Amino acid sequence: MRGNARSAPADAPPRAPHHIAIVYLAAAIAWILLSDRIVELFVSPQQLAAAQTYKGLAYVLLTGALLFELLRRHHRRVVTLHNRILRRQEAYRARLESLPVAVFTVRRGPAGENTVYWANRLARSMCNLPAPADNRADHDDQPGPRLDDLLEPDSRATVARLLESARARGGAHSSDHIVFDAPGARPVICVLSAIRSGAADAVELAAADITEHVRLEEELRRTEQLAVVGKFVATVAHDLNNMITAVAGYTSLAHEQLPEEHPAANTIGQVTAAASQADGLVRSLLTFSRGFSAPKRPGELRDIVGEAIDAARPLLAPNINLEAIIEGPAPLTVSCDRIQLQRAVINLITNARDAMPDGGTITLALAREDDTARIEVIDEGVGIPDSVIDHIFEPFFTTKTGEKGTGLGLAIVGGILKDHGGAVSVQSRPGRTVFTLRIPLIEPPPAMAMPAAPRAALIAEDHQLIAGLVARVLAASGWTVGTATAATQLAADPGEAIDLIVMDQDLPGGPGVDALAIIRSLGREPAMILVTGGLAPDAAELGNAVLLSKPFTPDQLLAAVSAASGVRSAAG
C-alpha cells in the first residue's frame, strides 16, 4: 500500500482507461508468442496436451491478476480525485456560508420550475428555510422549495427573466428591488445578482439586503417633505396667527357684550370655536414639521378634555356614542399648550370614529396615575393589523383610501405629546383599540392679583388689528395705553412711568428680544410680555418676560398680564 502510495500520489490525475487496455494487450501478445516455446523446452511431446491446458489456466490467472491490479489503481485514483473535488467544493460552500449576502443555488426542478437546491446561512435565515444536516457538496441534489414561493408575486417575473438571461448568455446579471416574502419570514428588499454555475441549468443567486437602505431613503424623503411643509407653514404662520388672533379676540369681545339669550350669541360662539380650531391646526403643523414648541401654561386637564369632548361631539355620526369617565375632584394640573392638547384628544376621537363605520361606543377615560395624568381613548372598531401598528405614528402613513386620510393625524398627536414631555401608546385587537396618553402633572399655581396703580402700558405691535385688540382689552381693565410700532422706537424711549410692555417678537427694526435687552440695560424693569407667532426665543433671551403665543384670547392676554406683573413684583 505504501508503494502504491509512492507510485500514485494523491494529487496525481488518474490514468485513462485506454492505458489499462494497452498494458493488458501487451501482456496477452507476449504470452501468445512466448508461452509455446517455453512449454516445448520443458515438456515432452506426450505431455504437451496437458501442458496446453495448464498454460491456458496460467494465462487466465496471470492476465486476470494484472487486469485486477490495473483497475484497482485506476479506481483508487478516481476516488482520490473525486474526494479532492468534493473537498474543494465544500471549502467553497463554507466560504459561501460566511458571506454577508444571501446565496442560493437554483436549478430546474422535476417539473421544470426554478427550484432552490442549496442556500447559505443568511439565505436560510432570510427565507425561513431549514438548515441542512451537513454542508457536503454531494448532498445538494435534493430539490428544495420553489423559488417563486419565496418571492413576492410582483417580483417573480423579474427573477425568472434574470435566471433565463444568466443561463442563456452567461456572465453576471442583476436586478434591484426584488422582494423576498417567504412564509414565516419578514419581507426583505434585495438587490439580486445571477451567474451561471457549472451545470447547464444551475445559477448562483446572490441577494444583498437593502431593506434598511430603502427605509432610510423613505425616511429622507419624508424628512424632505416635512422640510417643505415646515418652510411653507413658517412663511404663512405669522400672518395666519395675526388674522386668527384678531378674529378670535374681537369675536370674544363681541360675545361678552351680548346677553346669553341674544340670537347672535351662539353664532359668535361658533366663530370663536372655529378660530380656536384654526389656531390648533397651525400650531399642530408647526409642531409636526419644525419641532415648534409653543409656550406652556398651567392648565386643568379636566377642563381641557371636557372642551375637547364638546368640540368633538358634532363630528360624530348619530350611531356613535361618546362616553366620558373622569376620575375624582383632585386637581389634574399640567403645563400645557391648551389648544394643542385639545387637538390631540380630538384627533384620537375622530380616529376612533373612522374605525367604527357601523357605529359603536367611544370611551374617553381620564385618571391620575402616580405623578402623571392618563387619558385613554377606547373604541370598538375593527382594530389595527399587526403589520401596520408599528408605523401608525409615522408622518404621511395612512391606511385610509382616497382623500379620507393624510397620514398626519396620529403623527401630530405623537409630536404634541412629545412636546409636552409625555408619551402616546396603543394596544389593539379586533373589537377594542386603546390609545393611551400620559402627561406629567405639576402643582397648581398660586393665584396672582392684578398690580395696583400706576397702570401705564405700552403696546409695541405693527399689526393694527392686534394692537387695537390689546389696547381695548387693557383699557377695559383700567390700563392707560400707549403704542409703538417699531423696536427701535421702543428701545429709544420706553418711557419712565411704564408699568407694562406688550411687545411683538417680529417688529420692524429688529426682534423684540433685542429691544427687551436694551430696556434692561437702561435699568428699567417694567412687566414685560413678548408676543410670538412662531418659534419661542431661548429662556436666557426671554429673561423675566412672559411669553404669549399667538393666537390668543382676551382672557389669555389678561392671564399673561397677571403673570408678568407677578414676576415684576417678585423681582422688586
Protein described:
With 572 residues, the chain is α/β, with parallel strands linked by helices. 48% of the residues lie in helices and 20% in strands. It has helices at residues 2-7, 17-42, 48-97, 121-127, 153-169, 211-257, 263-290, 301-312, 338-354, 409-419, 464-476, 487-492, 512-521, 539-542, 554-571, and strands at residues 102-108, 114-119, 172-180, 188-196, 203-209, 297-300, 320-326, 333-336, 360-369, 372-379, 423-429, 432-440, 456-460, 480-484, 500-504, 506-507, 510-511, 527-532, 546-549. The strands form five sheets. The protein has a five-stranded antiparallel β-sheet, sandwiched between helices. A five-stranded mixed β-sheet has the order 7-9-10-12-11, with helices on one face. Helix 14 links the parallel strand 18 and strand 19. Helix 6 (211-257) packs across helix 11 (464-476). The radius of gyration is 44 Å and the shape is rod-shaped. The chain starts with a helix and ends with a helix.
The count of DSSP E runs of length 2 or more, i.e. the number of strands, is: 19
* Global geometry: rod-shaped
Mean pLDDT: 78
Largest sheet, described in full?
5 strands, antiparallel
The share of residues in extended strands comes to 15-25%
> In angstroms, what is the radius of gyration?
44 Å
User: How far is the N terminus from the C terminus?
Assistant: 111 Å
Low-confidence stretches: 1-14
In DSSP terms (H or I, runs of 4 or more residues), the helix count works out at: 15
